[in-house]
């Protein structure tokens, strides 16, 4: 496979639950040895980028924080650049740090935008209804991702997508999606490697947001059989990966 750069998902690819994927760190070392650049792109929106980096370090991955491109960081920059600095943040307190660091003010009224992440226990009737009212008053709807679910320590977990869809339906608005599969998100991360889409590949466990999103952007899409991978979901998706491997550990065999 003639690939000059890789984008690599984190949750489900580098680790599953609280366990690192066997051989994944070795695959990264092989990319380093061969001089192939890579960056990490994650729709994980429960954690700030700093927390993601610390979690990976605790699992045995020594990675520069700047190599991690997350939806909260990208969204905060996008909102700030567009002058939308007053936002109702449906996020966890940890992920909120990426917004406040970028100059975004968390507000409960007169919001420029409602930002939907994976807020976990923060998804209450009260918080969703507040978001709905703000949208009806004119706020924009911004979804950090629209994944349906992810693999947690004790099984599959609802992600932000179902809640963003509920607000879209209720308010009659279409969410602006910042994370995968947004082409802008892939291209933002890819620009740091110096490679173009036709020269790069995305490695992920989600057939739609990782593989399908990358292919729509002009990249190759590589499916791993770890994390949220389900054979029947891949088959039903109508998306054909360019390569299917058991885990990231197998990637060097195809370089």
Give an account of the 3D structure.
Helix 3 runs parallel beside helix 4 (93-101). Helix 9 links the parallel strand 14 (220-224) and strand 15. The protein has nine helices and 15 strands. The chain folds into two domains: 5-43 and 181-254, Rossmann fold (3-Layer(aba) Sandwich), CATH 3.40.50; 72-177, Rossmann fold (3-Layer(aba) Sandwich). With 255 residues, it is an alpha/beta fold.
Estimated helix fraction:
25-40%
**The top level CATH class name of the largest domain:** Alpha Beta
CATH-defined superfamily of the largest domain: HAD superfamily/HAD-like
Summed up, the helix count is 9
Could you spell the SSE succession in H and E letters? EEEHEHEHEHEEHEEEHEHEHEHE
Question: Roughly what fraction of the amino acids lie in strands?
Answer: 15-25%
Oligomeric state of the chains present here: single chain
| Shape descriptor | globular
**CATH fold name of the largest domain, please?**
Rossmann fold
- Number of beta-strand segments: 15
Structural class: alpha/beta
Query: How big is the Rg?
Result: 18 Å
- Structurally, the number of domains stands at 2
Poorly predicted sequence stretches spanning 5 or more consecutive residues: none
Instruction: Report how far the terminal alpha carbons are from each other.
Output: 5 Å
Nearest-integer average pLDDT: 94
Major beta-sheet overview? 6 strands, parallel
Q: Just name the CATH architecture of the largest domain.
A: 3-Layer(aba) Sandwich
Query: Looking across the biggest beta sheet, what order are the strands in?
Result: 5-4-1-13-14-15
């Amino acid at each position: 496979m003639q690939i000059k750069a890789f984008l690599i998902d984190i949750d489900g690819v580098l680790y599953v639950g609280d366990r690192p994927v066997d051989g994944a760190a070795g695959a990264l070392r092989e990319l380093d040895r061969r001089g192939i650049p890579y960056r990490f792109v994650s729709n994980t929106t429960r954690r700030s980028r700093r927390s993601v980096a610390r979690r990976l370090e605790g699992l045995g991955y020594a990675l520069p924080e700047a190599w991690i491109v997350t939806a909260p960081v990208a969204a905060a920059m996008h909102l700030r650049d567009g002058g939308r600095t007053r936002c109702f943040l449906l996020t966890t307190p940890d992920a909120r740090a990426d917004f406040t660091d970028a100059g975004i003010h968390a507000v409960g009224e007169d919001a420029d935008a409602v930002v939907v992440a994976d807020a976990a226990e923060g998804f209450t009737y009260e918080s969703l209804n507040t978001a709905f009212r703000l949208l009806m008053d004119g706020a924009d709807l911004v979804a950090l991702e629209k994944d349906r679910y992810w693999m947690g320590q004790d099984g599959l977990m609802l992600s932000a997508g179902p809640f963003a869809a509920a607000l879209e339906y209720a308010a009659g608005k279409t969410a602006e999606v910042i994370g995968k599969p947004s082409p802008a998100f892939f291209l933002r991360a890819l620009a740091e490697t110096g490679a173009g889409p036709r020269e790069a590949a995305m490695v992920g466990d989600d057939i739609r947001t990782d593989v399908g999103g990358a292919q729509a952007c002009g990249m190759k899409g590589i499916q791993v059989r770890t994390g949220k991978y389900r054979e029947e979901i891949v088959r039903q998706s109508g998306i054909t990966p360019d390569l299917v491997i058991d885990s990231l550990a197998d990637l060097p065999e195809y370089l």
